[in-house]
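Support reply, case 0932

Customer input (verbatim):
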Amino acid sequence: MTQKPPVIDGLTPAKQKLQRLLLNQQIQLTKPFVTDNANKIKFKTMVALNPYLNFPGTSEEAFNFYQSTIGGEIALIMRFRDIPEDNTPENEKDKICHISLKLPNGTILMATDALESQGHKLTTGNSFFLSLGVESVAEADRVFAAFSAAGQVQMPMDHMFWGDYFGIVTDKFGTQWMISYTSAQQQ
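Our regenerated output:
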């Protein structure tokens, strides 16, 4: 017997299909959900919390940069042209509907191009940072330097009173990063 997909209210059939596809990817990667007999989603134990970023049409460029800087594997790229019955303007069909970068530690960094033609108004804010822990001072300096190029240093890398080697930088895409190395003595 085939199990029906989860019910997703308030979305067009095409967007429901995309949402189910994304949900299935998340289930396969982290398995945080189960469904009951009514086919409603219930939470199991929370296994992972993965950041999802919005970009103004620069997701692919940003993720290529992130991959070259912090490693990992691009696990999925879905363009707007891949969505059935999509009404995205032709000049934006190659923009990113969903991209995911699986980092070496298993964290999955995900994003989309939040297009104004799709009703999104992207406002880059200061309400979040991505905190990246690295394995050495040299790695912290390398990543910080890469993010600083064409970005803005908010707090240079330095040894902090709590024991970490730490710095804050906003990269050229407007993403705010806290780079941190905790020595084996501190762990």
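We compared this against your earlier run and they match. Two observations from our side: The helical segments are 13-30, 59-70, 137-148. The chain has a mean pLDDT of 81. Please reopen the case if you see a mismatch on your end.
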